[in-house]
Amino acid sequence: MGNLAICPGSFDPVTYGHLDIIQRGAKVFDHVIVAVFQNSSKSPLFSVEERVELLKETTKDIPNVSIDSCAGLLMDYARDKNAKAILRGLRAVSDFEYEMQITSMNRKLNEEIETFFIMTNNQYSFLSSSIVKEVAKYKADVSDLVPEPVSRALQQKFK
């Protein structure tokens, strides 16, 4: 696959901020695998399977992006896929400390795989899946924050 990057996350649910990073990464790398990980520190609204399906639907027009899931360590997954890079998004300075810790550990686990950060478009700098879920829970319109299939899925979850 040449220049392959893994874009990991919980994507619970995928937002326009996530899509911004995925689309821009797809312009840089030959192929991007968006990998849905189960984050044991979070209680997800959507199952891994639902998140994979929502990502497939929302990225179907990006030919060099594929969707997968993984339950293990990111660096093991990246090695198994022969990835050259990890692709991460940064929203604000507050993200940097956490991302630096994760990247340092990943580098310790496998120094052959580089991590690349893309700054999120300013219009999405406030956006998180947690905020979207909180707002959607109270029946507020989130259609400008998430793709249509995600908006519908959120409405169904919070009926």
TrEMBL record:
Q: What is its main location?
A: cytoplasm
State its cofactor.
Mg(2+)
The entry's localization annotation reads: Cytoplasm
User: Taxonomically, which superkingdom?
Assistant: Bacteria
Q: Which GO terms describe its biological process?
A: coenzyme A biosynthetic process
Q: Which residues bind substrate?
A: 10, 42, 74, 88
Q: Where is this site: Transition state stabilizer?
A: 18
UniProt binding sites for ATP: 10-11, 18, 89-91, 99, 124-130
Top-level EC class, please?
transferase
Does this entry carry the keyword Transmembrane? no
What one GO molecular function would you report for this record? Answer: pantetheine-phosphate adenylyltransferase activity
So, what pathway does this thing act in? Cofactor biosynthesis; coenzyme A biosynthesis; CoA from (R)-pantothenate: step 4/5
Signal peptide (residue range): none
Give the family this protein belongs to, as stated in its UniProt record. Belongs to the bacterial CoaD family.
Briefly state the protein's biological role: Reversibly transfers an adenylyl group from ATP to 4'-phosphopantetheine, yielding dephospho-CoA (dPCoA) and pyrophosphate.
Quaternary state and interactors: Homohexamer.
Its protein name is: Phosphopantetheine adenylyltransferase
**Protein encoded by which gene:** coaD
